Amino acid sequence: MQGVEVVFHQGALASVPRSIVDPIGSLETNINGTQNVLLAAGDTGVRRVVYASSSSVYGNTPTLPKRENMPTHPMSPYAVQKLTGELLCGVFTRIYGLETVALRYFNVFGPRQDPASEYAAVIPRFLTALIEKRRPIVFGDGEQTRDFTYIANVVQANLLAASSPDAVGYALNIGCGEQVSLNTVLRLAGELLDVIVDADYREPRPGDVRDSCADISLARRLLGYKPSVSFHEGLARTLDALRSSSA
Length: 247
Fold this sequence. Notes:
The chain is of the alpha/beta class. It is 42% helix and 15% strand. The longest helix has 21 residues, at 23-43.
């Protein structure tokens, strides 16, 4: 980090199921790794660290949309680790004077996500299954909702967080402010591919949140953040990228 002005800390074992299977390995990366990043940044004179947090810190609270001043109720080791990383950022800002901003990402998706991983995100898994004419697997009834956030919006938020003078010390929601059910994702994907979707519904997974949607008003105010790519457009772009890579 010598000579570095801003650090974007994106490194993590970013999976709720993986953290349940391997909580110690997940903790070593997500908590101890974050502390190492903050220590190195402070030791080398980095101006600001932008930390990738997660909407999972809210847990299964029924109140929607999720606001930053709500109580947090993490339901998995991963969620606990992300919340701990936020707290570490706050401590390093208050005690050591290192500028930090935490961004609570809501279900990021986009091109080049690995659909083959055991812990792959839901959208590349769904799209790949449909392209390959397989039944997409849905854990639960498919009516659970997420605030799916296209990667370009997240990049925009990170760049804004690197320079905003008002965001230091805050944790901010980064989403689109829109609830989309998994069944809706499948329906829209089927329309884009012109196929009839026949999903394989299975038991819900432990640690999964039922519903999620971001209140992004604080990020609008402190960062000037405004999502530029809608969910439908992001889904179409992701599908095009997957079809190109599999052609």
